[in-house]
Amino acid sequence: MTVARPLPGIRFEAQARPLGDVLPRMDIPVFAGFAASGPLHLPVAVEDVAQLAMIFGGDVELPRPAKSREPRFAQLASAVRAFFRNGGKRCWVIRVADRATAVSNSFAVPGLVASGTLAPAIAWARSEGSWSDAVRVRTNLVPAPLAFESFDGARLRVRIASSRDVAVGDLLRVNGATYLFADTVTIDGRIATVEGALWSASPPLSSPPAFESAVERLTFDLTAQSETETFRLTGLGFAPAHPRYFGALPLDAALFDERTAWLQPAPPVGGGDWTNLWRDAATPRFPLASGDNTTRFLPIGMTALLSTPAGPLPVTGTELERDGLAVFSADLFIDPNLRETQVRDVLDLADALRYEAGLQLTGIHAALGIEEVTMLSAPDAVHRGWIPDAVGGLTSPLHDGSSEGGSSEFLGVPRSSSEKAELLDPRGTPRNRGTEEPSFVACSSLDPIAVPLLGATDVDGGTYALTWNTLAGTTDELQEATQPDFSDAATIFAGTTGRLDFIARPSGDYYYRVRRLRDGRTSAWSNGVGVRVAGTSGFVALDDDDTDDPHLVTIHEAMLRMCAARADLVALLSLPRHYDERRAVTHTTTLMTALEPQALSYGGLWHPWLIGRDDDAGPLRATTPDGATAGVMAARALARGAWVAPANEPLTGVLALTPEIPAHARQSLQDAAVNLIRREPAGFLCLDADTLSSDEEVRPLNVRRLLILVRRCALRTGNDYAFEPHSMNLRNTIKRGFESMLSSMFLRGAFAGRNEKSAFQVVTDETVNTPQSTDNGRFIAELKIAPSRPLSFLTVRLVQRGEAATAEEVR
């Protein structure tokens, strides 16, 4: 082998400059709340709004009060969208719900059966909830012909063009009736010998078939259709050894479980490598999964044509019950085992539950294992809750049409939106009668067209049908409106079937009418039919009143205790929309009285709510301020540093505030540590950024965030010296390392003082490392810093004990 010799001479190579020391990220929050889909109580990293929608679905409608027609929505999705809109780059999302009552839909896969029992194969929705009610499943078989060589009932020999033509895990079909699972494949030149389990609907072949394409390698395609999207996985296999085995399609609980490597499934013995399948199913997220990864399946009845769509199998319970949200309580957001735990015990008990008892923490406590997050928000904690209600979805006639244009003397023409009619509200109560008479034209020379009679079936989870009588020679035009006077009516159907089915319609009130068309003429409009699709049927929200909200106080207390226990998180708290200044002050006073003083500096509270649009064409919606606040804090941390107060920054996408806070109440809210969002000439912004602490040294939020940053830096640097021998050289090395880090932060404005000496100090000498401490195997480094505001020194002490290093705040 000839090796090229380098040419003589001198060559200069440019070496890239080493990257400077990068500070730990302080811009990543975790949001916990209600979502339509996604894994329950499992943190999932989200990088943009599209990924949020792909995994956690759209907005979740919640019960509304009995006297309100305005829909209410969960705040999680809106908060995350506001976070990205205001400059955030990455966050974690935790979907909370009652795991004991949340139910997943199941689907009988068309044409697919288990090989042993011939029972229909079942696919499950990838996560719990009613979000998959509108999903429809279809399959089609994909046969690939192979050249037949011989078959003796135990061994099948086929001619192949390459080794990829047949592989272990394949399903082969011989003569259309005998199925062979390829457990072993031996290749000798162009001949492949396949052995494995047989299934046959007829006696096995004893002689070669009469035609050469009688052997087929089978795969199938699985299609899942929703109202707006179609998902398709191709080339799926029937046996566990197949790399695209149907039974390996992952549930969200497996795909995003922090205890398993993402996209690295662990198949059972005899299973194939399913990594590529999981990757394909993850992006875009395929709606279906399989809970059976050991069974072999057969395509009995499956053809090359797309099958008839199959919906979910019947399941009991309302949508809210199947979503795991029938009962609103603090336990949705808090691990019940940590509900009353004090700050000093949170981490120890959480570790015991996770590592000794093997339990998965729930709610906000599921975020304890995510080291990179520095902010915590539970936007859906602001809801007051709901109770069962006897009134659910219904259909009700708007008017019977008995007096409208159906006589032989007049022919109705399109009329104004105020046509005479009796309208019923969603509960069926007469609401108003139009006073304007309809417009008619005389048509003595024309035969009138009979008016159709419109009816509707009962609403079942947004699924219903409209029916009307047909007339030969005419075409029917059906209109839908969201207003009872049909002022926004639009034609949604034209045909002669006399029926239109609706599947899993979004919640809301819909109004329908139909008329007939023939030769350019129309009949009068039929009777109107109103349909209420109540996504939260069976429940009614509690009214906003002056009673206490015990759930909110409990959730906020748990958030602050968790943040203080970890000592590197801050809680972003919001209040219910209807809270005025008196209720806001009462809430903060309750928290300050109930919590340990050290926990109060680990959270801040923002009010009021923001009104805006998620996009240019979206509806106006009121949302909690914690999502936008987290976005501002993230953008500030990325651009300038976590020590810069996240205040006086205009919020993006905000058009108004609710409720209106009078100017005379601003001082009392500031004194109560409520960060008030205000409308100023520069936009909607918050001029305060305080924690709930009454201690002036740590009351500013930027001071707490700076201390968290220094603590993270100390832990990261200290771990590098875990096994170094205690010596003067170690002391000097650590001292120089910390001084270099703090010096760069000082130059960026993190600390007060004219010079470095007055801004920070690093102490590693005998004043902290006494002989007794050294003999006990401890090394202590004290970092004294002066945050960028008039403030006495605060001390962060790094203590090394054997392999572990801890950072303590010394006052």
Features:
811 residues; alpha+beta; 9-stranded antiparallel β-sheet; 8-stranded mixed β-sheet; 14 helices; globular
Q: What are the SSEs and their pairings?
A:
Layout: E1 29-33, E2 44-46, H1 49-56, E3 61-62, E4 72-73, H2 76-85, E5 91-95, E6 106-114, E7 120-125, E8 136-151, E9 155-159, E10 171-174, E11 178-181, E12 184-188, E13 191-195, E14 198-200, E15 215-225, E16 230-236, H3 252-255, H4 275-282, E17 288-289, E18 297-298, H5 319-322, H6 343-356, E19 375-377, E20 386-388, E21 394-399, E22 410-412, E23 422-424, E24 430-433, E25 440-442, E26 454-456, E27 464-468, E28 475-481, E29 490-495, E30 499-502, E31 508-518, E32 521-522, E33 528-533, E34 539-541, H7 550-566, E35 570-574, H8 581-594, E36 603-607, E37 609-612, E38 621-623, H9 626-639, E39 654-658, H10 666-671, E40 674-680, E41 683-686, H11 701-718, H12 728-747, H13 756-759, E42 760-763, H14 771-775, E43 778-785, E44 794-801, E45 804-810
Helix pairs in contact: 1-2, 2-9, 6-7, 11-12
Describe this entry's structure for a reader:
This protein is of the alpha+beta class. The chain has 14 helices and 45 strands. The strands form 11 sheets. Strands 8, 9, 10, 11, 12, 13, 14, 15 and 16 form a 9-stranded antiparallel sheet that branches. Strand 43 (778-785) and strand 44 form a beta hairpin. The longest helix has 20 residues, at 728-747. The chain is globular and about 95 Å long. The model is unreliable at 391-441 (pLDDT under 50).
